[in-house]
Amino acid sequence: MAGRRVASLAMSTNASPASSAPSADPLAVLASLPGVAESVDSVRKATDRVYGHRVMRRRSGEVTAEAALRGARGSAALSGADWALEEVRRRTDFSGDPESRTVGAALRLTAEAGQLLSVWRQSPLRVLARLHLVAAGGVGDDETVGRPRLAGEPVREPLIEAALPDAEEVGGRLEGLAGLIVAGSSAPAPVIAAVVHGELLALRPFGSHNGLVARAAERIVLIGGGLDPKAICPAEVGHAEQGRAAYVAALDGYLSGTPEGVAAWIAHCGRAAELGVRESVAVCEALQRGAA
């Protein structure tokens, strides 16, 4: 299960060899991996800077709306629909070809994420089911939408080629992940967000839209965890900017389960958040100049 997997890694990185008991807060132990504290600190400082921008005093709603649009565009790009921002802004119909539906799903998920913050800490599995329903948008077999896949059901996620866990393992690890979220953790939001994101990509629990759902869940954790309460730091922008190859390579590190690999994935996600901050700083500057 995800809980056991994270706890096992936490034990392997525990600085005290005399302790053989699993940590009561394994996510917090992951925060002590080499380079993770520095990554978290860098993200926090960047976020503080954009929140301190003078434009945020009066026009934060506009920055939030623009961050949502750009975040959705970035998430869709990673799922194979790499559209120009202005094309995403211009379109009103996303019901046509597969790329259009991917962009539409990303936009719906970004809008929905902010409505699910209060539910996430009590029932993360319910939130994940809702996210998949929103992403599917009524397209596909109703019997498979909004629930984890069953044995023998296919998964459409071309970007991730890692071995696919079987349905029984998926169910157990989802329960473990949910248990960690409900129990709470002292780990910083960027660490929890990276683990949630990585686990969902590793499991690919649904028949489709797993990448979009994983990035929406990351967004929920970053907002609900207090790092980005106004949703102006779209990590999806940074993931897209770093590129699909770097995204997959960092995920491979997470999937390896080694301390180095997991730390590299957390740092990669942290860098994505920083790049999202940079995007919103640019939006603030444009609004200040009257160019947006």
From TrEMBL:
<dbReference type="InterPro" id="IPR036597">
    <property type="entry name" value="Fido-like_dom_sf"/>
</dbReference>
<feature type="domain" description="Fido">
    <location>
        <begin position="123"/>
        <end position="268"/>
    </location>
</feature>
<dbReference type="InterPro" id="IPR003812">
    <property type="entry name" value="Fido"/>
</dbReference>
<feature type="compositionally biased region" description="Low complexity">
    <location>
        <begin position="15"/>
        <end position="24"/>
    </location>
</feature>
<feature type="region of interest" description="Disordered">
    <location>
        <begin position="1"/>
        <end position="24"/>
    </location>
</feature>
<protein>
    <submittedName>
        <fullName>Oxidoreductase</fullName>
    </submittedName>
</protein>
